[in-house]
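Case study.
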Amino acid sequence: MTRITLGGAVLRGTVSTALIASLMSAPALGAAPVDLSKWSPEYVRSIAGTQEFDTAADCGKVTPLDYKGRLTFWYQGVFEGDPDLLRQYYKDFFETFRKTYPNIQLEEQALTYNDLLDKFRTALLGNAAPMAVRLQILGGTEFASKGYLQPLKPEDVGYSADDFWPGAMKAVTWDGVTYGIPTNNETMAFIWNADIFKRAGLDPDKAPATWDDVVKYSKQIHDKLGIAGYGLVARKNAGNTPYRFMPQLWAYGGGVFDETSANPTYQQIELDSPQSKAALQASYDMYVRDKSVPVSALTNQQADNQPLFLAGQLGMMISHPSDYNVMLDLQKKATGTDKDKAQTVIDNMRYGLIPTGPDGKRAVVFGGSNIHILKPEYVEGGKVDEPAAKAIICMWTSPEWSLKMAYAGSNPGNLNGFKTKWMKERLDSIKFLDVTTSMLPYGIPFPALPQSPEIMNIIIPDMLQNALTGAMTVDQAADDAAKKVKDLMGGL
Amino acid sequence: MTIVTGKTEARRRLQPGKSGVLRKIWEHRADYAYVLPAIAVMLVVIAYPIYYTIELSFFNTPPGLQLRDKTFVGFNNYTAILTSAVFWKVTWNTLIWTVGSTGISFVLGFAAALALHRDFFGRGVLRAILIIPWVISAVAASYIWKWIYHSDFGIIGAVLVGLGLADRPPNFIDSVSTVLPSLIVVNIWREFPFAMIMMMAGLQTVPDQLLRAAKVDGANAWQRFWHVTFPHLRNVSTVTILLLAVANFNSFIIPWIMTGGGPSNASHIWITHIYELAFGRQRWGVASAYSVLLFIILMTFGYFYVRALSGNDRKDGSA
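After joint prediction, the assembly is written out as follows.
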């Protein structure tokens, strides 16, 4: 038995009390994490607006509000396909940050999804990176594995790992170490125009149940109305392509590796499996055989599908909940009869779950973004102002701002965001939000590998383009893509 | 009339064998002082990157590693490039792109220059209009043309369908067979005004008295062009073609914005392919090897360009 002196006992008692008191005061532990096992639209509604958060006070415990410092920060910002509402929230965030931390000199730079990775990689090569960066979910592992990022876990900014989706935490973990914090996470949904469905002889209130139905419906819409049925996207170097093709690939039972399993090992390449080929065949059938999707799918991104949909020239597409707001914004800018036409489309806009594969498998990309701190040696000037970086990270990943910054197009990375009053307001004002939150449990993260950006942004679109242009057969395109992944994983 | 330029005078003074190298340098110390800042800047922003690119071309840089973890592979990158099917496809695309864009831009620019060289009402306005494509930002032009060509709701398609000339909009940039010619058309539209301006400047140097004399001697318009005008424009034509060719070899904005090298690599030219290899796929070593090869080709163009300019100088000096 260990003997403890009176002084030692007092010291232990004091330390333990202080430790418990400090943990109790931490915002993450002050709020019970959301129960993911109960996740449903009803559950989300039941917890919305049940808790108040004081962001400034919480972040003040991480970095004092009078802290004086300087921070360079790059982030994946709003782009042409985002609604105006989101632009306003981004503006509000930086204004609020400057008011909350008046002595931190913030130099922020917004970059679009498709530009950020290239620019960030180039900056890293020249040791000219910013001190902190908010990257798409795909990017974290690449930079963590190369040693550019500092370890950073939710606890470092006053939260707990339980406050975030487990899938999102996987995407910021490399070799057992956490290198970032999720800011937002989303899953997309299936959108269709009920009026087009009706005119094409389809049930206007029923989304296609399977991907085979999507192929069938797309053809029916095209044949009867002469417009594009499904909004296929196959542009290279554009995040939109994997976000739309991977759900199809996974639903058919395919994959790049075994990323759909609970504990993926990423050892076996599955792109050339019969299931993966069946998914590619479905795209081929729509683009080449039936010609029922936009011809411009090879050079376009989702932002090009939005005006097509609003003009009543597209029947179905996969997209964010924000697309409803985007349509409202676009409709406001329309003039004359176009305005009325656009309103008709908006009135007929419907959201549903993404279709399943032949075996009833439903899947969607678990998307989002993460925020990271760089190691000083890769930063311009060779110094990182950690307290300043943690201040902005605490604020962005707070329940309040992780929700507001994802108000229209995503969901809060911090699950406590679902409990805020702004979530309640959001559920009341954003149509179809229920549907996209219902897709969250079906979300599959991209493989947490440094090679993922190349696989998703180049190899997958290349495979689609090779098959859809006839440069290769479906089998050849899938085999070619599998070989490219194999070479890539082999370091070639 | 003999025009003595500064360069010609300097060349005369630099006849070999008449003085030592140091003496020559001393004689031209002011000249060297003038070009020294430019040389210093070039050493920093051009010479070092060239050296680094050449060095990097001998290393393997896997996407999962930092650049400092690169491994020396000798000429492997060059061997891999020269034996890959993609290289030959991209090279073929680059040749079609460069030759097509350069040749047609030059011919159209020359024709426009000849037309605008005549005195007619509205010539100034027309000249200003024709220069517009050249002064428009290439990025803006690319987006506009993407819209014009759009395979679903492009202007050309809408007009053709509206006039009943086509059942559905033609596929310009989403087809492997039409994408490159479509991009070349955009490039020609953008750069023929450059050729036009160069050739218009050249036309002003053609002695008027020679043309009048030829007319008096009974030469028809074609003979006057072929035997008087064209010989006077030989050097400016060479320089224009070389400048266009170099610009086209290095052309990035139009193909990258309009198609990103797709579909299925059908519009990838060297420079877009190098960009994708380096920044999209992080194969810095292979991309550097590609760049070295491109550099050698461009230096060859540069050599002929300087020769063409020197030819002008020699001609000027001896006339």
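Observations recorded in class. The first helix of chain A runs from residue 6 to 25. Confidence is low (pLDDT under 50) at residues 1-32 of chain A. We will return to this complex in the next lecture.
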